[in-house]
Amino acid sequence: MPRTALIVIDMLNTYAHEDAEALVPSVREALPGVTTLLKHARASDSPVIYVNDNFGDWRSHHGEILRTALDGHHGDLVEPVAPDGKSLFVVKARHSIFFETPLAYLLGQLGTERLVLCGQVTEQCVMYSALDAHIRHFDVAVAVDAVAHIDAELAEAALRMMRCNMSAELCAVEDVSFDAPRAEGSGPPDGG
Questions:
Q1: CB of 72 closer than 8 Å to CB of 13
Q2: Cα–Cα distance for residue pair 132/134, rounded to 1 Å
Q3: Is the peptide bond before 8 cis (omega within 30 degrees of 0)?
Q4: Residue 184: its pLDDT value, please?
Q5: Which regions in the chain score pLDDT beneath 50?
Q6: What confidence score (pLDDT) does residue 27 get?
């Protein structure tokens, strides 16, 4: 099985934006799926990479982004999915997890060939990230019960596009598989 990484998109959210009211109910529905994926990825020793917006604060780092989100309007949606001490973190400024971020380099260093995407927003950041992963020749899986949307119709259309145009595997959280745990003493692949 190719090396798989779990990508958690924009789940450290302040919910202080104009679409928050429409987004929050869907996040509540997706939250159990995201937490299950985190549990399974961590148990299999697969990389867990949070790729998150920085809320336009270019002085922030992952600790500040997490604290801001936890102190936001819906900290209860953030706390269950907070990064642990082994999680990796990439800050993004636009919709795609790849746009002007070091993510592709990081994935190459980890020997990653397959990405499991979860988070928000299905019809925006998840879709654009799936496209950018596809054009970079990553295998992509989208856990449909671990992504949240603002507009249900657009989200359904986005999922169809990811499947048809980007060769993404659409699957339920229960059907997502990760790498087997590494043998004791083995580390990440050599970066060269």
A1: yes
A2: 5
A3: no
A4: 47
A5: 182-192
A6: 97
Q: Is the backbone of residue 100 left (phi > 0), alpha (psi -120 to 50) or beta?
A: left
pLDDT tens for each residue of 47-64: 999 999 876 565 556 778
What's the pLDDT tens digit per position in 149-179?
999 999 999 999 999 999 999 999 999 999 7
In sequence order, which residues have a C-beta less than 8 Å from that of residue 41 and are 6 or more positions away?
4, 5, 6, 47, 48, 116, 178
Q: Are 124 and 91 in contact (CB under 8 A)?
A: no
Beta strand 88-92 with 169-171 is unpaired
Q: How would you label 109-141 residue by residue, b for 16+ Cβ within 10 Å and e otherwise?
A: ebebebbbbbbbbbbbbbbbbbbbbbeeebbbb
Would you list the DSSP string of 103-157? HHHHHHHHT--EEEEEEE-IIIIIHHHHHHHHHTT-EEEEEEEEEE-S-HHHHHH
